[in-house]
Amino acid sequence: VGCVVWDAALVLAKFLETGACPLARRHVLELGAGTGAVGIMAATLGANVTVTDLEELQELLMVNIENNKHLVTGSVRAKVLKWGEDVTEFQPPPDYILMADCIYYEESLEPLLKTLKDLTGPDTCVLCCYEQRTMGKNPEIERKYFELLQRDFELEKIPLDRHDEEYRSEDIHIVSIHRKQ
């Protein structure tokens, strides 16, 4: 699944391009980066980005970073991060954490939530973009994720009219997430 640029990644990348979030010189971490499209977009907007995913996707991330380095005005690097494991090397907490279509495996919910808790500081903004899927266990997994997330985080859905005019869809949502105080 990591070798595809999912629609939610396009929607989130284009949302960042609208300038809704000030990214210049900000520390940004992308979780489950896959191709790195979202993180590379943040780097073209001046952010200092670490795109993270599993070991088997590092080569693809490196190729995509290399192929887009001429567009980068901040910085971008790829690192391995397995959800649920130690995040010490990613500290201090980033200004932004970006996630596109990371909620689909029930087994990954707890590790993902642990990683989010371990990575976020009081000022970290998590932008989670996902496509609402209605098939199989997807609705149940999504419901469970947001239920568990709300124990430690406050959520705010970003209205569709604030998404990029062309890259938006009724079934793709962007949620802004912050640690509860």
Structure description:
- The model has no long low-confidence stretch (mean pLDDT 94).
- Helices cover 31% and strands 24% of the residues.
- Strands 3-2-1-4-5-7-6 form a 7-stranded mixed sheet, with helices on one face.
- Helix 4 packs parallel to helix 5.
- It contains 5 helices and 7 strands; from the N terminus they run H-E-H-E-H-E-E-H-E-H-E-E.
- By secondary structure, the protein is of the alpha/beta class.
- It has a single domain, classed as Rossmann fold (3-Layer(aba) Sandwich), CATH 3.40.50.
**Biggest beta sheet attributes:** 7 strands, mixed
Mean pLDDT: 94
* Rg measurement, Å: 15 Å
CATH architecture: 3-Layer(aba) Sandwich
Number of strands: 7
Number of helix segments? 5
How would you name the CATH homologous superfamily? Vaccinia Virus protein VP39
What is the CATH class name?
Alpha Beta
The ordered H/E elements are HEHEHEEHEHEE
Q: Helical residue percent?
A: 25-40%
Specify the overall morphology. Answer: globular
Going by helix content, strand content and strand pairing, the class is alpha/beta
What separation lies between the terminal Cα atoms?
35 Å
Biggest sheet strand order reads 3-2-1-4-5-7-6
Number of domains: 1
Beta-strand percentage? Answer: 15-25%
For this structure, the CATH topology is Rossmann fold
